[in-house]
Here is the input.
Amino acid sequence: MIEALLGDEKVEVERALERACEWLSDELPDELFQPALHAVLSGGKRLRPLLCVVAYRACGGRTGPAVYDLGAAIELIHAYSLMHDDLPCMDDADLRRGQPTPHTIFGEAVTARAGTALIPAASLWALTASDALGVDEAVSRRIVSELNRAAGAGGMVGGQALDLLGEGQHLDSTELDRQHGMKTGALLTVSLVIGGLAAGASDTAIAGLESFGRGIGLAFQVTDDILDATEVAADLGKHPSDGLHDKSTYVSLYGLEEATRRARVLAEEATEALRGAGIDAPALMALASYVVERKR
Ligand code: GRG
Here is the structure.
């Protein structure tokens, strides 16, 4: 189902990431470009750019290469976050997407710098893509500010800080939802919002995309915790690590069965919110199912 709906989209997303890397090769010194290239082109589900492109289309946007470039800008933020997350001072992981993590190849200091270089690069690339899409300046400004807000202290960075502080603590469901809403949900949600903004979506449609994003963001994280508790590195492409870092997870909080049920309910509620906002997009509905049915 998901392959039939999104197979070609993923190919286009990969092409856009290659275009972004070609641009980065001129922007960054080679020492920083190589780890960035490894992080950006090492596979992955490409969920964030796919959400952006599919939301754009669902809101009436006409496709063309530039919307994939916009999605690629979000993926640059995601790539940096994984580079930094895997560093020894954070989650200390040597495997991701079935490949060695950048710091195990290029060293910690260079990987930290290369990841940091991707943060401003993402904003510049989002601006370039917005210009190419022909959106007006106020919308471009909003796209870039929404991206930075979601990536920053009130979003992904703040959520990661809570995650690190929460190691060894017993978080309740409100604390866990807040942490993951920021750490994972904010970037997934803004991917949809940016796609909607680029397509000139109404405030109602943007609000619907936001509710959908918050729902699938939490469903994504509950599923991540289930996979971490039940799968092995050969299937996951990374070492399960929640137990190692003594993290509170949805599985430790609810147990496997209830966590599985909760992920499904969250995904269903998310699709209802989307329909409620007048967006009836099979590809977005398929992505919501994929988020909870995925095996890695
Ligand atoms: C300075 C506190 C501080 C933070 C720096 C490291 C960092 C910023 C943020 C980390 C955020 C992070 C790792 C969020 C996890 C998001 C997540 C669930 C990643 C896995 O996403 P997938 O499954 O990965 O979409 P693929 O490989 O498919 O792209």
Remarks:
- The chain has 14 helices and two strands.
- Residues 203-230 form the longest helix (28 residues).
- The radius of gyration is 18 Å.
